[in-house]
Design goal:
The chain is of the alpha+beta class and 292 residues long. It has two domains: 5-118, 2-Layer Sandwich (D-amino Acid Aminotransferase, Chain A, domain 1), CATH 3.30.470; 125-283, Alpha-Beta Barrel (D-amino Acid Aminotransferase, Chain A, domain 2), CATH 3.20.10. 28% of the residues lie in helices and 28% in strands. The chain contains eight helices and 16 strands. The strands form two sheets. Strands 7, 8, 9, 10, 11, 12, 13, 14 and 15 form a nine-stranded mixed beta sheet that branches. A seven-stranded antiparallel beta sheet has the order 2-1-6-5-3-4-16. The longest helix is centred in the N-terminal third of the chain and has 14 residues, at 47-60. Bound molecules: 4'-deoxy-4'-aminopyridoxal-5'-phosphate. Residues 36, 159, 185, 188-190, 209, 211-214, 247-249 line the site of 4'-deoxy-4'-aminopyridoxal-5'-phosphate. Residues 36, 159, 185, 188-190, 209, 211-214, 247-249 line the site of 4'-deoxy-4'-aminopyridoxal-5'-phosphate (PMP).
């Protein structure tokens, strides 16, 4: 197998040599941000949108990214070229960098930038037809006035607790509510429901990441004439929906067949979900930055 090259603060190092300090505040405190991006057939899908979200997250937490936007895009392209990757996943991490054991970010003089690119294997093609079994969990989405879920921070403990509960229930993904009981998102994806031809996704202010795939699906809905709304809804609305699906960079558009023991629709991916997946897959190698 060819060597995997990791971008680490301007250098390319092998996987074995890609090491960061135990004093890095990303490690000590989850102090940093990240992006998960995909390359499809040599095209970094929605590269600008991902970098915009990265730089917005950085601004929000007052993290000074040591690369300009242009340099960051070049670093992504170079890492993909180095690894000869045409189709796969890109993990871009910016941590606060090494400091001391104290919390104070002023003790971290330079943020660290890491880019890892890999082949991606997530759900089988079969899973896109059968859909996922999901459960709702008791862990609530962290509230926007504590740590805003719009910031794609390295602090994923909220999501990990959700994943643990989901695993314990034997589910493939979980549905997180906010403190008021409104549906927000999955542990690593956004959620949509469809009832009588109307597609609804929760507004991000309820406590959801402003997913790039979520936005792409909203755009497709507008272009193709589907009725799409961003409105709050509850678990009851999910249980009685005709179709439910999740969106994310890794998951793309995947149907949900079961929620808390309630069978959704016919118990497999519904027609609108499959049509949206097809539309989505038709744009992924066009909309973005071409590497190859
Ligand atoms: N919500 C959370 C909590 C996530 O981690 C992700 C994955 N980045 C998403 C939603 C989906 O966002 P995107 O479509 O940008 O991957």
């Amino acid at each position: 197998m060819a060597e995997q090259w990791i971008y680490l603060d301007g250098q390319f190092v092998t996987k074995e040599n890609a090491k960061v300090s135990v004093y890095d505040h990303g490690f000590l405190y989850g102090d940093g941000i990240f992006e998960g991006i995909r390359i499809y057939n040599g095209n970094i899908f929605k590269c600008k949108e991902h970098l915009d979200r990265l730089y917005d997250s950085a601004k929000s937490i007052m993290l000074n990214i040591p690369l300009t936007y242009q340099e960051m895009e070049e670093a992504l392209v170079e890492t993909l070229k180095r690894n000869e990757l045409r189709d796969g996943y890109i993990r871009l991490v910016v941590s606060r960098g090494p400091g001391n054991l104290g919390l104070d970010p002023n003790r971290c003089p330079k943020a660290s930038v890491i880019i890892i690119v890999e082949q991606l294997a997530i759900y089988s093609e079969e899973a896109y037809k059968t859909g996922l079994k999901t459960v709702s969990v008791s862990t609530r989405r962290n509230v926007p006035d504590a740590l805003n879920p719009k910031i794609k921070s390295l602090n994923y403990l909220n999501n990990i607790l959700v994943k643990i509960q989901s695993n314990l229930s034997g589910a493939g993904e979980a549905i997180m509510l906010n403190a008021q009981g409104y549906v927000t998102e999955g542990s690593g994806d956004n959620i949509f429901i469809i009832k009588n031809g109307v597609i609804t996704t929760p507004p991000c202010y309820l406590g959801a990441l402003d997913g790039i795939t979520r936005q792409a699906i909203i755009e497709i809905c507008h272009q193709k004439g589907y009725k799409i709304k961003e409105e709050p809804f509850t678990l009851h609305d999910v249980y009685v929906a005709d179709e439910v699906f999740l969106t994310g960079t890794a998951a793309e558009v995947i149907a949900v067949r079961e929620v808390d023991g309630r069978i959704i629709g016919e118990g497999h991916a519904g027609p609108i979900t499959l049509a949206l997946l097809e539309e989505f897959r038709s744009i992924v190698d066009k909309d973005g930055v071409k590497v190859w």
